C-alpha cells in the first residue's frame, strides 16, 4: 500500500486552537457588548458631584512630583486607586469652614484618622436632600434620586442641599445601638430597638441617616442653614433611604463569555477535523457487486512509464513489466477490481470489459439470483474473490432481504448455507437487523479458511473496502481470523448447524426448503423465506481419479493444515497452483522432508510470481522435485504411482507417506442447478 | 578519422588511450569533454573521500594519485595503489548503482586528472550502438573495481598477484536486494562470498524468530567454512540492504586457500569475532540488537531523531514542516521506532570505581535516553528510491542530499515503495503553484528536503521549543556505528559526546525563568503607581502575545541565519516574560477583581498565566515519564485505536493457549487490564514499562510458586500486552496533560486581549 501523506493532529490542531482563541475573543466581546458589566471603574457619584461633573482624577490623581508630598493625614490610603481626601475635597469645599466641631473628632482629624470621606462617601453610601420651591425636595443617593411626594414646612431656601450621614459611618467609632453612646440622641429610637432586637444591625445602620444635623458648626455661623437642617431632618425621617444605582457587574461574565466562545468555535473545528480524518481514512466506493463480464487491464504501451505501480497494486500478479512496459501476464487471475487503473500515474492503463464470464451464476446488483427470486448469493461463489469482499457481500445480501421481506411468515426469515466469511457476516447482519436466521454448514465454521497453511497471513489486499461487522482483522494470520470468528459465533449465539451438507434446495410457494444430510442418511430440513448461498468455490475440492489401496485413504488429503506435521516425511503434491506451490514451499522447509510435485502441464501456467520464483529456487537447490506432465493414479500406504500425461511416458512409483491433492475446486453446480440456477455457459452453448 | 578526433579534442590523447576509453567515437568524446572536466591537482589535494557520492571515474593525465582505504580488520588507512599517467581510478562508481566512495584518492604528484561523469559515459557508449563495447567496458571496469576490492579485504590482500588473478577470473558478481537471502540454512555450500558493498545479517532461527549472529560489511568474507567439509549452510545470510557480493566458487576458493593457509589464518582471526561462537544454544554474545534495523543507521547520512525525554509533544516540528512547504503538507509525522542511547561519558568508568560497581551503576542508575526516529528522509548514502525512479526525478546534490524534482515526478509511487522506511509519501499535487505548465499528473512524491533554501536549517529543528529534535549523522554520533559492526553486539547504543554538539545540548531555561520569577516577586512587593504597573503589565502582555505570532511565522524565521534554535530562545523568553507578567499583574491588581471590565481582565489574565504556568511545569516534568511508558511513538489521535488493537492482540494471543494460561489471565491479567484507575496508578508510580512488566510477572510468579512449564507458553507475551494496554491509558492521560492546557491558555489570552483593549479605552476616555 502506498504511503500517503496525512494531516496529523500536530498540524491541524494549530488551526483548531487558533479558532478557539478567536472564539474566545468574540465571546468576550459579545459579553461586553451585552452591557451588563460596566466598562470602566466609574462608580456612581452623589447628585451634587455628578451635577458638577467631577472627573475621577479630581480626587484620585496622585500629586505631581513637583508638588510637595502630601502629609500622611491627607491621604486616605485605603483602596485603589488611592484617594487624596483632604486635598481633593478642599479644592472645592473651602476647607476651613467645615471642620468638625467636636473635640474628639478634631483630634482624630489632626492625626489623619478622620477625613471628609470618613463621613461623606462620594460614591455608594452617599445620601442627601436637595430642596426645591415651597418645601418640595429631592432625596438622592449615589447615582439615583427620588422626588418626594410631600413637602416640608419651615420655608427652606430653594436649592439648599443637606448631605445625610449614614449611621454606619459613625459606627466606625461609636456604637449606635447602645443607649449610652454619645451619639445615642442621633439614632432614631425605633432603629436602635430594631437593631438590638432583630440583629442585622449593619444593613440597617447603612440605610439610616444620623439625626444630628449641625454640620459641625456653631449655630451662630450657620444661622441660614438652620431651616435647611430642620427640613432635612424631617425629610430623612419621612422618606426612605435611596439605594445607589447598581454599581458593579460580575467580573466572571466576560471571562465566561470568552470561554464559551472558545468552546463553541474550537469544539466545532475539532469535530469537523475529526470527521474529515474519518472520511479520509474511510474508503470510497464498494466494488462488491460482481462483474458479469471478464474485465482486463489494457495498457497503452506508448505512454506506459514502466513504473511498476500497477504491478505492485495487483494482488494476483496479473501484470508484469517486460521491456519497460507493463503487460498482462496472467489474464486468468484478474479479479476485475480496478486497483491497477487507479494507481496508474498517467492513465496508460485502463480496464476494459472482455468476454462474458461463463462459470458464474448470474446475479443482479443486490446479489439476488436472476433465475430464482429470493435466492441470494454471496462470497467467492459470485466470482469476486477476497475474504473482505465476501464479508461485504454477506452484509449486502442481508440488507437487501431486510428491506424487502415481510418477516415471520416462515420458521426462518433467512437460511444461510455455508459458514465461511460471507455466510457468517450474513448471519451476523441478519441478527443485527432482527431477522430469524440459521446457518447450515457442511463441516465446521470457516472450514476452508482453516485449511489454509498454518500461520498464513491472510492477504490484506490494498483495497479500501468498507468492512462491516467485526469479522475482519487486519493482517491476521488465519488462526487469529478463525479464532475471532469462532468467538463471535459463540458470543453472539449464532445458530450454526455444523455437519449438515446441503443436498437440495426446493421452492415451496414463496418459501424455500433446504435439505441438509447428516452423515450418510439422516436428513434435516429447514424452511425459510429467503436463502443466502455462501458456499464458496473451494467447498468441494476437485478430486483425482485415484486407485487407493484399502487403509491408504488417510494418506490422501485435499488441504494442507499444518506443514510442520510433515517434517521428516515424503510427500507428493498434485497440482501447481498457488496453494499447491505454497504448500510445497512450506513442507520443503521442514527438516528432513522430501517433496515431489506432480503436475499435468508441461510448464508453470499460473500462480504468483513470488511462488514460482521460490519453487524454482528450491528445485535448483535440490530440495524439491518437480515432475511435469504426470498425474497421480494410485496410492498405497507407502507409495504413490504417477502416470505420464502424454502417451510416451510411462508410469513410475514413488516412495511416499502422503499425497496432497491441491488441484483447485469447483462451485457445486449440482446444488446450484437443483436450486434452479442456470449455468450461463450452458445457456450460451445450448 | 583519428586526426579529426584529435583536432576537435580539447583533452589530451592520453585520456582516450586509457584502457576503458579506447575505441570511443568522436561524438562520445565531445559529449564527455562537454560534461566532464580537467582538474589541476597539487600534491596532497583530495580528489574524493570515503562516503562521497560516486558518480564519476578519473583518468590521470599528468602526475599521480594515491588510493588508500581502511582495510578490513585494521584501524588505519593504508595505501592500495598508485595511479599514474594513463591509468584510471574511481571505478567503484560503475559497479554499484549510486554507491558511495569506499576509498580516499589523494594527489601524490602535481598534475592533471580528467573527470568522466559516469552517466554520460554509459549513455555515449550505449548510443554508439556498441553493445559489445558497452559490455567490454562494464566488464573491464568491474574487474578493475573488484581488484581494488580484493586488495582491501583481509583475506586477499596478502595473496600473490597470481592468486588474485585466479580469483578475479573465476568470481561471479551477485547483487541481492534488501531482505533477500544469499543462502538459507541447509542450502548446499558451493561458494564463498566477499562483501563488496552493503550490509548483511547472518542469522539463525530461534523459536521461529530470526536471531542475528553477525553483521557482515564491506570486506568481510563469509560462507567459506562450510566449503571444507562439503556440508550444508549452518546459518542463513540475508541482505539488510541492497548489497553487492563477489562469489568465489568452491573449487577455486579451496585451491587458493590451500596455497595460502597463512592468509586464511588471518581471516579466521577476523571470523573468530564473527561466526565462531556456538550458533546454537545462544550465548551472551548473541543478544538481540538494540537497533532493529542496523542497516538503517549505517546508510543514513542525516537521521532525524527526537529526544523523547525532552520532547513536549507540542507538534511544532510537524506544523512548521507543513507551513515551510508551499503545499502545506507536513513531511514529518511524529511516529516511528524508538531507540535508546547513552552518552559516552556516563559509560566511562568513574574515578575509584571498580568493574562491579560500574556495572551496577549502569544497570540501575543511568537513564538511557530514548530517541524516536520518525519517518523522515535520512538522505541515504545509496538511496534506493533514486534507483527505482522511472523518470529520474530523484537526484542527489553535491553534498549528497537527496531531492525530488517535482516537475519530473509522475507520482507513480515507485520511490515510496522502494524506501524501506516509508520516508516518502504520495501527496496530491498542489495547484496553487503558478510556475510552469500545469503537470498532467495529479500526484507527486514528497519527502523531507531539509528545508532547502532556508538559511536557518530545517524548520522542525529550528522551531522546537525544547531542542529535542535534531538531525544527526548516526555514523558519527553513535559510537557503535562508528566502528564496524561486530558480531558481538552491544545491548545498547552509545551516543557519542565527541565531537560535542552532535545532539544539541539544551539551552537551559531555569536560570532565566527563576531570575524572572525573582523579578516578578520584587514587582509584586513594591508599591507602584496604577499607571506604572498598568503600562508595564500591558506591555508584557503584548510581548507574550507576540510570541505566538513570531514563532508561527515560519517563512520569516527561515530567512534569519542562526546557530542556536530560535524556537528554544523564544520559548525561554516566553516563560521568563510570563513570570514577569505574573508579578506585574499582581502589582497592578493587588489580587482584587472589581465588578467591571478591569476585574474581568484580572480574572482572564489569572487564568491565562495560571494555565501557562501549569503548561511550563508539565512540559518540564512529564516528558521523561511519558517516554518511560512508550514502546514506539504513537500520535495522540491514534491512542484509542492502539488500545483496541492491543485488545485484539490479547484475544489472539489467548486463543489456543493452555488452561493454565487462561486461568492466570482471568485471575490476574484481566482484572489488571480492566482496572479503572490502573492507568492513573501507573502514571503516579512513574514506573517504566519494563519495571511494570516485572511487577506483574512477580505477581504471577507468586501464584505459580516458581513452577514453570511449557504450558505457560505465551504468558510473557500476554503480560507485555496487558502492561502496554495499561500504559496506553497512561499515555492518554499524560498526553492530555501535556497538550490539553493549551486551548484554555489561548482562549483565556484571547479573552484577556479583548478585555485589555476595552480596559485601556475606558481608562483613556475617563482621563
Write the SSE topology.
The complex is a heterodimer of chains A (686) and B (767).
Chain A: H1 9-33, H2 47-51, H3 56-60, H4 85-90, H5 103-110, H6 116-119, E1 127-131, E2 136-141, E3 144-151, E4 161-164, H7 167-170, H8 189-198, H9 201-206, H10 226-238, H11 252-281, E5 293-299, H12 309-313, E6 319-322, E7 325-328, H13 339-343, E8 349-356, E9 375-377, H14 387-404, E10 412-417, H15 421-432, E11 437-440, H16 447-450, H17 478-491, E12 496-497, E13 500-508, E14 511-518, E15 522-533, E16 547-548, E17 556-557, E18 570-574, H18 578-588, E19 594-599, H19 609-620, E20 624-628, E21 630-635, E22 639-644, E23 652-655, E24 658-661, H20 669-674, H21 680-685
Parallel strand pairs in A: 9-15, 10-11, 10-15, 11-12, 16-21, 17-24, 18-19, 18-24, 19-20
Antiparallel strand pairs in A: 1-2, 1-4, 2-3, 5-8, 6-7, 13-14, 14-15, 21-22, 22-23
Chain B: H1 2-8, H2 13-16, H3 26-35, E1 37-41, E2 46-48, E3 56-60, E4 64-70, E5 77-84, E6 88-89, H4 92-95, E7 104-109, E8 111-117, H5 118-127, H6 131-152, H7 161-170, E9 172-176, E10 181-183, E11 191-197, E12 199-206, E13 209-217, E14 221-222, H8 225-228, E15 236-239, E16 243-249, H9 250-259, H10 261-272, H11 294-299, E17 303-307, H12 316-324, E18 336-343, H13 344-347, H14 355-364, E19 369-374, H15 384-388, E20 394-396, E21 402-404, H16 414-418, E22 425-428, E23 443-446, H17 459-463, E24 469-472, H18 474-477, H19 479-482, E25 493-495, H20 510-525, H21 530-552, H22 554-557, H23 566-589, H24 597-628, H25 639-654, H26 659-674, H27 678-685, H28 689-704, H29 715-766
Parallel strand pairs in B: 18-25
Antiparallel strand pairs in B: 1-8, 2-7, 3-6, 3-8, 4-5, 4-7, 9-16, 10-15, 11-14, 11-16, 12-13, 12-15, 17-19, 17-24, 18-19, 20-21, 22-23
Amino acid at each position: 500500500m502506498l504511503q500517503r501523506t496525512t494531516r496529523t493532529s500536530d498540524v491541524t490542531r494549530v488551526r483548531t486552537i487558533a479558532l478557539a482563541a478567536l472564539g474566545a475573543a468574540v465571546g468576550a466581546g459579545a459579553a461586553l457588548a451585552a452591557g451588563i458589566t460596566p466598562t470602566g471603574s466609574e462608580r456612581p457619584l452623589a447628585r451634587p458631584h455628578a451635577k458638577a461633573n467631577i472627573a475621577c482624577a479630581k480626587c484620585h490623581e496622585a500629586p505631581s512630583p513637583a508638588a510637595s508630598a502630601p502629609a500622611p493625614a491627607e491621604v486616605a490610603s485605603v483602596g485603589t486607586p488611592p484617594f487624596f481626601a483632604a486635598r481633593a475635597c478642599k479644592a472645592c469645599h473651602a476647607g476651613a469652614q467645615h471642620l468638625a466641631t467636636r473635640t474628639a473628632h478634631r483630634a482624630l482629624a489632626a492625626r489623619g484618622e478622620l477625613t471628609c470621606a470618613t463621613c461623606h462617601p462620594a460614591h455608594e453610601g452617599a445620601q442627601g436632600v436637595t430642596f426645591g420651591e415651597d418645601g418640595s425636595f429631592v432625596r438622592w443617593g449615589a447615582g439615583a434620586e427620588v422626588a418626594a411626594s410631600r413637602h416640608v414646612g419651615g420655608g427652606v431656601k430653594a436649592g439648599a442641599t443637606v448631605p445625610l450621614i449614614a449611621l454606619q459611618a459613625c459606627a466606625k467609632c461609636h456604637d449606635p445601638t447602645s443607649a449610652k453612646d454619645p451619639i445615642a440622641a442621633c439614632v432614631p429610637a425605633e432603629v436602635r430597638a430594631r437593631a438590638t432586637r432583630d440583629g442585622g444591625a449593619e444593613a440597617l445602620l447603612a440605610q439610616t441617616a444620623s439625626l444630628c444635623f449641625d454640620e459641625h458648626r456653631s449655630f451662630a455661623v450657620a444661622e441660614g442653614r438652620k431651616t435647611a437642617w430642620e427640613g432635612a431632618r424631617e425629610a430623612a425621617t419621612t422618606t426612605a433611604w435611596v439605594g445607589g444605582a447598581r454599581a458593579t457587574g460580575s467580573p466572571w461574565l466576560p471571562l465566561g463569555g470568552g470561554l464559551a466562545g472558545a468552546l463553541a468555535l474550537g469544539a466545532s473545528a475539532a469535530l469537523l477535523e475529526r470527521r474529515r480524518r474519518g472520511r479520509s481514512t474511510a474508503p470510497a466506493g464498494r466494488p462488491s457487486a460482481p462483474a458479469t463480464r471478464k474485465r482486463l487491464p489494457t495498457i497503452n504501451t506508448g505512454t506506459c512509464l514502466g513504473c511498476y505501480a500497477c504491478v505492485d497494486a495487483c494482488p494476483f500478479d496479473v501484470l508484469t513489466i517486460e521491456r519497460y512496459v507493463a503487460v498482462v501476464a496472467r489474464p486468468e487471475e484478474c479479479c476485475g477490481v480496478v486497483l491497477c487503473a487507479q494507481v496508474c500515474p498517467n492513465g496508460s492503463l485502463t480496464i476494459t470489459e472482455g468476454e462474458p464470464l461463463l462459470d458464474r451464476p448470474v446475479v443482479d446488483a443486490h446479489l439476488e439470483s436472476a433465475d430464482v427470486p429470493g435466492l441470494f448469493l454471496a462470497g467467492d461463489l459470485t466470482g469476486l474473490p477476497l475474504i473482505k469482499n465476501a464479508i461485504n457481500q454477506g452484509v449486502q445480501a442481508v440488507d437487501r432481504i431486510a428491506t424487502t421481506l415481510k418477516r415471520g411468515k416462515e420458521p426462518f426469515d433467512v437460511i444461510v448455507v455455508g459458514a465461511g466469511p460471507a455466510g457468517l457476516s450474513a448471519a451476523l447482519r441478519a441478527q443485527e437487523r432482527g431477522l430469524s436466521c440459521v446457518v447450515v454448514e457442511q463441516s465446521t465454521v470457516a472450514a476452508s479458511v482453516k485449511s489454509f497453511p498454518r500461520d498464513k497471513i491472510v492477504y490484506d489486499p490494498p483495497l479500501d473496502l468498507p468492512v462491516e461487522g467485526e469479522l475482519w482483522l487486519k493482517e491476521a494470520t488465519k488462526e487469529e481470523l478463525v479464532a475471532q470468528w469462532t468467538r463471535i459465533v459463540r458470543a453472539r449465539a449464532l445458530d450454526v448447524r455444523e455437519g449438515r451438507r446441503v443436498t437440495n434446495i426446493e421452492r415451496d410457494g414463496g418459501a424455500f426448503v433446504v435439505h441438509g444430510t447428516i452423515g450418510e442418511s439422516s436428513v434435516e430440513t429447514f424452511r425459510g423465506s429467503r436463502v443466502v448461498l455462501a458456499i464458496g468455490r473451494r467447498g468441494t475440492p476437485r478430486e483425482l481419479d485415484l486407485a487407493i489401496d484399502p487403509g491408504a485413504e488417510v494418506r490422501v488429503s485435499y488441504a494442507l493444515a499444518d506443514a510442520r506435521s510433515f517434517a521428516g516425511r515424503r510427500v507428493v503434491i498434485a497440482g501447481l497452483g498457488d496453494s499447491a506451490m505454497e504448500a510445497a514451499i512450506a513442507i520443503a522447509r521442514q527438516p528432513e522432508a522430501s517433496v515431489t510435485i506432480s503436475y499435468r502441464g508441461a510448464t508453470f501456467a499460473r500462480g504468483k510470481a513470488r511462488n514460482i520464483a521460490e519453487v524454482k529456487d528450491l528445485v535448483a537447490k535440490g530440495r524439491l522435485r518437480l515432475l511435469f506432465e504426470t498425474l497421480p493414479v494410485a496410492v498405497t500406504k507407502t507409495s504413490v504411482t504417477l502416470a505420464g500425461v502424454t502417451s510416451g511416458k510411462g508410469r513410475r512409483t514413488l516412495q511416499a507417506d502422503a499425497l496432497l491433492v491441491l488441484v483447485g475446486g469447483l462451485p457445486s453446480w449440482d446444488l446450484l442447478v437443483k436450486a434452479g440456477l442456470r449455468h450461463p455457459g450452458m445457456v450460451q452453448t445450448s | 578519422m583519428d586526426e579529426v578526433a584529435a583536432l576537435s579534442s580539447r583533452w589530451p590523447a592520453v585520456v582516450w588511450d586509457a584502457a576503458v576509453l579506447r575505441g570511443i567515437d568522436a561524438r562520445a568524446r565531445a559529449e564527455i569533454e562537454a560534461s566532464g572536466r580537467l582538474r589541476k591537482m597539487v600534491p596532497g589535494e583530495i580528489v574524493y573521500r570515503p562516503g562521497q557520492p560516486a558518480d564519476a571515474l578519473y583518468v590521470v593525465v599528468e602526475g599521480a594519485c594515491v588510493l588508500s582505504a581502511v582495510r578490513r580488520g585494521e584501524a588505519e588507512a593504508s595505501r592500495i595503489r598508485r595511479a599514474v599517467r594513463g591509468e584510471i581510478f574511481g571505478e567503484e562508481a560503475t559497479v554499484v548503482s549510486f554507491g558511495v566512495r569506499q576509498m580516499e584518492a589523494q594527489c601524490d604528484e602535481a598534475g592533471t586528472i580528467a573527470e568522466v561523469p559516469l552517466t554520460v559515459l554509459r549513455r555515449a557508449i550505449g548510443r554508439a550502438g556498441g553493445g559489445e563495447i558497452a559490455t567490454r567496458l562494464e566488464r573491464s571496469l568491474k574487474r578493475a573495481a573488484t581488484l581494488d576490492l580484493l586488495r582491501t579485504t583481509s583475506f586477499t590482500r596478502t595473496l600473490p598477484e597470481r592468486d588474485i588473478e585466479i580469483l578475479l577470473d573465476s568470481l561471479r558478481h551477485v547483487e541481492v536486494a534488501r531482505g533477500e537471502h544469499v543462502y538459507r540454512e541447509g542450502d548446499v555450500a558451493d561458494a564463498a562470498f566477499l562483501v563488496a558493498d552493503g550490509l548483511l545479517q547472518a542469522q539463525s532461527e530461534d523459536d521461529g524468530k530470526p536471531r542475528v549472529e553477525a553483521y557482515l560489511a564491506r570486506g568481510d568474507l563469509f560462507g567459506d567454512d562450510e566449503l571444507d567439509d562439503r556440508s550444508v549452510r549452518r546459518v542463513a545470510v540475508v541482505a539488510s540492504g541492497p548489497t553487492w557480493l563477489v562469489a568465489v566458487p568452491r573449487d577455486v576458493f579451496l585451491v587458493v586457500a590451500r596455497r595460502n593457509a597463512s592468509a586464511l589464518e588471518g581471516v579466521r582471526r577476523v571470523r573468530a569475532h564473527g561466526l565462531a561462537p556456538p550458533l546454537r544454544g545462544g550465548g551472551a554474545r548473541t543478544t538481540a540488537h538494540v537497533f532493529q534495523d542496523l542497516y538503517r543507521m549505517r546508510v543514513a547520512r542525516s537521521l532525524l531523531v527526537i529526544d523523547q525525554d525532552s520532547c513536549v509533544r507540542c507538534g511544532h516540528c510537524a506544523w512548521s514542516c507543513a507551513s515551510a512547504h508551499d503545499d502545506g503538507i507536513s513531511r514529518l509525522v511524529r511516529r516511528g521506532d524508538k531507540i535508546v542511547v547513552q552518552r559516552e561519558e556516563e559509560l566511562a568508568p568513574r574515578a575509584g570505581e571498580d568493574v562491579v560497581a560500574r556495572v551496577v551503576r549502569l544497570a540501575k542508575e543511568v537513564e538511557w535516553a530514548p530517541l524516536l526516529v520518525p519517518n523522515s528522509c535520512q538522505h541515504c548514502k545509496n538511496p534506493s528510491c533514486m534507483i527505482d525512479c522511472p523518470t529520474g526525478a530523484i537526484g542527489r546534490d553535491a553534498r549528497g542530499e537527496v531531492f525530488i524534482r517535482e516537475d519530473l515526478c509522475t507520482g507513480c509511487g515507485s520511490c515510496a515503495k522502494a524506501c524501506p522506511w516509508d520516508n516518502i509519501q504520495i501527496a496530491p499535487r498542489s495547484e496553487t503553484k503558478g510556475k510552469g505548465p500545469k503537470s498532467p499528473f495529479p500526484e507527486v512524491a514528497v519527502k523531507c528536503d531539509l528545508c532547502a533554501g532556508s538559511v536557518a536549517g530545517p524548520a522542525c529543528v529550528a522551531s522546537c521549543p525544547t531542542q529535542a529534535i535534531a538531525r544527526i549523522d548516526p555514523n558519527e554520533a553513535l559510537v557503535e556505528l562508528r566502528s564496524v559492526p561486530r558480531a558481538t553486539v552491544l545491548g545498547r547504543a552509545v551516543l557519542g559526546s565527541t565531537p560535542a554538539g552532535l545532539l544539541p545540548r539544551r539551552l537551559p531555561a531555569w536560570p532565566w525563568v527563576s531570575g524572572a520569577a525573582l523579578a516578578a516577586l520584587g514587582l509584586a512587593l513594591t508599591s507602584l503607581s496604577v499607571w506604572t504597573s498598568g503600562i508595564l503589565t500591558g506591555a508584557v502582555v503584548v510581548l507574550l502575545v507576540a510570541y505566538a505570532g513570531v514563532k508561527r511565522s515560519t517563512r520569516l524565521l527561515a530567512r534569519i541565519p542562526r546557530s542556536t534554535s530560535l524556537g528554544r530562545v523564544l520559548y525561554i523568553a516566553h516563560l521568563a516574560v510570563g513570570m514577569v507578567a505574573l508579578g506585574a499583574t499582581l502589582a497592578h491588581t493587588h489580587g482584587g477583581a472589581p465588578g467591571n471590565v478591569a476585574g474581568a481582565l484580572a480574572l482572564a489574565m489569572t487564568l491565562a498565566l495560571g494555565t501557562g504556568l501549569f503548561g511550563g511545569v508539565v512540559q518540564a516534568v512529564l516528558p521523561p515519564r511519558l517516554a518511560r511508558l512508550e514502546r514506539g511513538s504513537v500520535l495522540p489521535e491514534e491512542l484509542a485505536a492502539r488500545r483496541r488493537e492491543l485488545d485484539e492482540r490479547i484475544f489472539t494471543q489467548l486463543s489456543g493457549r493452555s488452561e493454565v494460561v487462561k486461568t492466570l489471565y482471568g485471575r490476574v491479567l484481566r482484572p489488571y487490564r480492566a482496572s479503572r484507575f490502573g492507568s492513573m496508578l501507573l502514571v503516579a508510580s512513574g514506573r517504566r514499562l519494563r519495571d511494570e512488566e516485572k511487577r506483574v510477572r512477580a505477581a504471577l510468579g507468586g501464584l505459580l510458586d516458581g513452577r514453570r512449564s511449557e504450558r505457560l507458553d505465551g504468558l510473557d507475551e500476554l503480560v507485555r500486552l496487558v502492561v502496554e494496554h495499561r500504559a496506553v491509558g497512561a499515555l492518554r492521560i499524560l498526553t492530555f496533560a501535556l497538550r490539553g492546557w493549551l486551548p484554555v491558555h489561548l482562549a483565556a489570552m484571547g479573552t484577556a486581549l479583548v478585555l485589555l483593549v476595552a480596559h485601556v479605552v475606558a481608562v483613556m476616555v475617563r482621563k
